[in-house]
Design brief:
The complex is a heterodimer of chains A (about 575) and B (about 325). Chain A has about 575 residues and is of the alpha/beta class. Chain A has helices at about 20-30, 70-80, 85-105, 135-150, 215-225, 255-260, 270-275, 285-295, 315-320, 325-335, 390-410, 420-435, 440-455, 460-480, 490-515, 560-565, and strands at about 5-15, 35-40, 55, 120, 130, 155, 160-170, 170-180, 185-195, 230, 235-240, 260-265, 305-310, 345-350, 355, 370, 375-380, 460, 525, 540-545, 550-555. The radius of gyration of chain A is 23 Å and the shape is globular. Chain B has 3 domains: about 5-100, Roll (Ubiquitin-like (UB roll)); about 105-265, Alpha-helical ferredoxin (Fumarate Reductase Iron-sulfur Protein, Chain B, domain 2, Orthogonal Bundle); about 265-330. In chain B, the strands form 3 sheets. In chain B, strands 8-13-9-10-11-12 form a 6-stranded antiparallel beta sheet, covered by helices on one side. The chains are: A alpha/beta (about 575), B alpha+beta (about 325).
Chain lengths: ~575, ~325
């Protein structure tokens, strides 16, 4: 039996109000569609706000040699060539315009003395490429997009969680879920749905992600029949806070290294000089994270199992102007004055390269009517994402998904809502109030996080992954017996009970794909297969739902057209000098 | 902190009813109040409602009143309160939803009324802006919308009706827009009218609680008051003069911790410049404050550029929208 629920009708439903969702909504509205944005938190709190370092775009303002081809190569090389080349190309070509466009919404980036956008060095970017505002770039971006959305009068439904996509045949025609404030059910009926729900960092114990990173979009897309690409590729950011325990995992921006910070071990050595003599601290994130891990394993870690990140040589003035929120964060939370003492850092789960498989041009998933953009989608970053590429990803593909959904909704009529699907979801949602069980949703979540951290984290092997898979399958059983107290009114325990199922689905996909990728590539590091396998380098793994269970298959990586493939054959001597030689003049 | 544990008294309730509930939480080094709340959620009360996102003081979601002080829970260490119970309450300026969650939707409605960034239609893209012009805007754009300034603002907190003033957060937003080097919109009419910049009596409570250390009063509200005054009175005869809003000593001396205990009343003195609600919202000057609180005023009528003060007329203090304080002739 269906409980009464509110139904709202719109042309394009955007789920998620981070950078990708807001940009998609702006574009869909520009295409003439009625748009509704739904988000789990208040507007402006999405995880984009946490982005610190900058947005990568080959403007060439500081290094005039930069162009989209170099950005494209950096992105593909960083992703170990299992990226979707077309996405990488569009991303490199279009990100400059997206940055300029953001300024027309009111954003203000840091500037060069002659008034153009300033750019800073970042890991594995050949040139100084990251447009930034101190270390609060994400805040500037989300606020500008938010202001634009408000200016355009786009409808925003805050604190609503959508937990199931509604289908009319194969087509996605809406979604159903609940209002967090009063717990009432709500359904959206729309011609197209854009998922922009972000990543799944919360599946792990030590993460820089907020509570929202439970992978809802990937999970509901998966449940509806969409394909999940590269789930095994989970990025560790090399530098998260380590001490005190309460702050473990909080991000320390890569901009600290971009501005010239050194990584040192407990013996005071700059160990990155050995692991990557060319790029040093600004090597790609997978390399730096592994290097820190290796130093700790070799007994040269800090007291709390990390490395030192030192900016004391930069001078207090520069640290305070270029890294103000890092200065504040350490002073406040760790009693460390970073202008005088080094920071203690260790890798923290940061980003999911994997996600829903989409078409490069449109962000269309494998289901008609369903689009995805941003971290929820996969393909651009391959096996490892470069810092700064996610913010440009949000804008480039948010816009593309918005435009495509805006065009699609003109061609189709509203689908019909299947009451049976709504009733099923309501039953599932209400189960924790009536089930005969005693499981605590938070404790199950913690057990999952612990298992994923230990066995599916930075260093993986077959034995650990299989152990992890068993834990996940066992937790799946127990998740059905989760019981929560209280009413449906703003009840985080109840919310967590549903999130837990999303997380378990994705965890299973991650682990199953990680077992099958018997090689080390990018962020995926197998202790039992330390080398790259050229055969596996030509495939992506795809997870799909087969009557509720997670199945896996391989899909060949699409070959690059000849003119792009040529870019990777040029002699190494043409590569520019490392960024250290070209510091921005003070 | 006793026996390695801390005691929290957390407000629990729905709508307007509720009380503190005592919880004991094991102390961990460097723990913040939000960690303790999470521990309670996981182990004692799964349904304890609170908002949070980033846990790194970047999103401004976990605002609460901790031992009477408006703070971010993620940024407040429990060891700031040695040997004390920690009282955690929701922001009390906004209607309660449940436990630590309040209905802050009013803020979003106010925000919609502010005209957004408006560049010249033919402004060439990419924009050119000099660093010295952009850097002065950064302070306003640091705002994380935690609404702690709104929570502590006397005007909003002490009036059930929030129709008189948009509050410090939106003064900061307007200041950021007004000072954007490429913005062309004028918001002083709005400030003077609906946004009610004149309502602020400069107690600076908002800037004391700002977790981003934005000098809200000094760098946003006061310049906006000046800008508004200049724009509103320039065409007449007050060019070159500054209106200085009167500092309310009672409220200024009040510690921010003792919220809601002292109500700062609207006070008037002879020579104060005020704006009225009635009629076409004329300006007026206070001639006498009558013992019953009513005011004897002279209303400003302009004839060309000539000022004429008509009066006296007796009005009720509730007919006053803004009190700009006395005119400062020293420029």
């Amino acid at each position: 039996m269906t409980e009464t629920y509110e139904t709202r009708t719109t042309d394009v439903l955007v789920i998620g109000a981070g950078g990708a969702g807001l940009r998609a909504a702006i574009e869909a509205a520009a295409a003439g569609a009625r748009v509704a944005i739904v988000c789990k938190s208040l507007l402006g709190k999405a995880h984009t706000v946490m982005a610190e370092g900058g947005i990568a775009a080959a403007l060439g303002n500081v290094d005039p040699d930069d162009n989209w081809q170099v950005h494209f190569q950096d992105t593909m090389r960083g992703g170990q060539l299992i990226n979707n080349w077309r996405m990488a190309q569009l991303h490199a070509q279009e990100s400059p315009d997206r940055v300029y466009e953001l300024e027309t919404y009111g954003a203000i980036f840091d500037r060069t003395p002659d008034g153009r956008i300033l750019q800073r060095a970042f890991g594995a970017h050949t040139y100084r490429r990251l447009c930034h505002v101190g270390d609060r770039t994400g805040l500037e971006m989300i606020r500008s997009l938010q202001d634009r959305v408000v200016q355009l009068g786009i409808e925003v439904h805050m604190e609503v969680t959508l937990t199931r996509l509604l289908k009319d045949g194969e087509r996605v025609v809406g979604a159903v879920g609940y209002n967090r404030i009063d717990g009432r059910f709500v359904a959206f009926r729309s011609k197209a749905v854009i998922l922009a729900t972000g990543g799944w960092g919360r599946i792990f114990k030590v993460t820089s992600n907020s509570w929202e990173g439970t992978g809802d979009g990937v999970a509901i897309g998966f449940d509806a029949g969409a394909e999940v690409l590269d789930p095994e590729m989970v990025q560790f950011h090399p530098t998260g806070m380590v001490w005190p325990p309460g702050v473990r995992g909080i991000l320390v921006t890569e901009a600290v290294r971009g501005e010239g910070g050194y990584l040192k071990n407990s013996e005071g050595q700059r160990f990155m000089l050995e692991y990557d003599p060319k790029k040093k601290e600004l090597s790609s994130r997978d390399v730096v994270a592994r290097s820190i891990y290796k130093e700790v394993q070799a007994g040269r870690g800090t007291q709390h199992g990390g490395a030192f990140l030192d900016v004391t040589h930069l001078g207090a003035e520069k640290v305070k102007t270029k890294l103000p929120s890092m200065y504040e964060q350490f002073l406040r939370l760790a009693d460390v004055d970073i202008t005088k003492e080094p920071m203690e850092v260790a890798p923290t789960i940061h980003y999911a390269m994997g996600g829903l498989r989409v078409e490069a041009e449109t962000g269309a998933t494998t289901l008609p009517g369903l689009y995805a953009a941003g971290e929820v989608a996969a393909g651009l970053h391959g096996a490892n994402r470069l810092g700064g590429n996610s913010l440009s990803d949000l804008l480039v593909f948010g816009r593309r998904a918005g435009a495509a959904a805006g065009a699609y909704q003109r061609e189709v009529a509203l689908g019909s809502i299947d009451e049976r699907q709504v009733a099923e979801e309501q039953q599932l949602l209400l189960l924790p109030f009536s089930v005969d069980g005693k499981e605590n949703p938070y404790l199950l979540q913690q057990q999952l996080q612990q298992a994923m951290q230990e066995d599916a984290g930075l260093a993986r092997d077959e034995k650990g992954l299989k152990r992890c898979l068993n834990t996940i399958l066992e937790l799946r059983q127990r998740a059905a017996r989760v019981r929560v107290p209280g009413s449906r009114r703003y009840n985080p325990g109840w919310h967590t009970a549903r999130d837990l199922r999303f997380m378990l689905t994705i965890a299973e996909a991650i682990v199953r794909a990680a077992i099958e990728r018997r090689e080390s590539r990018g962020a995926h590091w197998r202790l039992d297969y330390l080398e790259k396998d050229s055969a596996l380098g030509r495939v992506n793994f795809i997870a799909y739902s087969d009557r509720g269970s997670v199945k896996l298959r391989q899909r060949p990586v699409e070959p690059m057209p000849a003119e792009l493939a040529k870019l990777f054959e040029e002699p190494a001597s043409k590569a520019p000098a490392p960024p250290e030689a070209r510091r921005i003049p003070a | 902190m006793k026996n390695g544990s801390i005691v929290l008294q957390v407000f629990r309730g729905e709508d307007s009813a509720g009380q503190e509930v005592r919880f004991e939480v094991p102390a961990v080094e460097g723990m913040v109040v939000l960690d303790a709340i999470h521990y309670i959620q996981a182990n004692h009360a799964n349904d304890l409602a609170c908002r949070w996102n980033c846990k790194a003081a970047k999103c401004g979601s976990c605002s609460a009143e901790i031992n009477g002080q408006p703070r971010l829970m993620c940024k407040t260490r429990v060891d700031e309160y040695p040997d004390q119970e920690i009282h955690v309450w929701p922001m009390r300026t906004f209607p309660l939803i449940k436990d630590l969650v309040t209905d802050v939707s009013w803020n979003y409605e106010v925000n919609k009324q502010i005209p957004g960034f408006t560049p010249r239609p033919n402004e060439p893209v990419p924009y050119r802006m000099l660093p010295e012009d952009t850097e002065r805007v950064y302070e306003y754009r640091k705002c994380i919308e935690c609404f702690l300034c709104q929570d502590v603002c006397h005007v909003l907190r002490n009036h059930d009706d929030k129709s008189l003033y948009y509050g410090p957060r939106y003064m900061v937003r307007i200041a950021g827009l007004e000072l954007h080097p490429l913005d062309t919109e004028r918001r002083t009419g709005l400030l003077h009218g609906k946004a009610g910049v004149g309502m602020c009596n400069i107690t600076k409570c908002c800037q004391e609680v700002c977790p981003e250390h934005i000098k809200i009063t000094d760098n946003a509200i006061i310049p906006l008051k000046e800008r508004t005054t200049t724009d509103v009175y320039d065409p007449v005869a007050w060019i070159g003069r500054k209106l200085r809003p009167r500092r309310d000593e009672l409220a200024a001396g009040q510690p921010t911790g003792a919220l809601g205990t002292v109500r700062a009343p609207q006070r008037f003195a002879v020579k104060d410049v005020i704006r009225l609600k009635s009629g076409d919202r004329p300006m007026a000057r206070v001639g006498t404050v009558l013992p019953d609180g009513r005011l004897e005023i002279w209303v400003l009528k302009m004839k060309g550029t000539q000022q004429h003060w008509k009066g006296p007329k007796t009005i009720d203090a509730s007919d006053v929208i803004n009190n700009y304080g006395p005119l400062d002739h020293a420029h």
